[in-house]
């Protein structure tokens, strides 16, 4: 029985080494891409998040206010019960209907 040298499919280095080098190269490219993205994205705060803009702060405050008003409305309805059928989309629900109808 004659043993022959292992065939590298015509390459100077074994195929497993080629695969390893390709994987290392891909990892290096991912690291370089992350570094470029990090530089282009700009600075972030100490928490890792970008600072909020004034418009975003105002919007968030408006949403919190609306949610608190809706919550308070729901508590009032559960404690005292609705005196009449209430439509939350009706802008005149808190006014006296007799003034609106006769006006």
Automatic annotation (TrEMBL):
Transmembrane spans: 12-37
Superkingdom of the source species: Eukaryota
Residue ranges, compositional bias (Basic and acidic residues): 84-103
Region of interest (Disordered), ranges: 80-103
Alphabetized PROSITE patterns for the sequence: PROKAR_LIPOPROTEIN (PS51257)
Entry keywords, A to Z: Membrane, Transmembrane, Transmembrane helix
Protein name: Uncharacterized protein
């Amino acid at each position: 029985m004659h043993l022959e040298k292992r065939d590298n499919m015509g390459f100077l280095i074994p195929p497993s080494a080629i695969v390893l080098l390709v994987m290392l190269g891909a990892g290096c490219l991912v690291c370089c891409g992350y570094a470029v993205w990090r530089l282009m994205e700009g600075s972030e705060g100490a928490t890792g998040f970008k600072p909020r803009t004034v418009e975003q702060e105002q919007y968030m405050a408006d949403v919190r206010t609306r949610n608190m008003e809706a919550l308070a409305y729901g508590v009032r309805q559960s404690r005292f019960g609705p005196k009449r059928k209430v439509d939350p989309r009706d802008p005149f629900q808190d006014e006296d209907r007799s003034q609106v109808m006769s006006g």
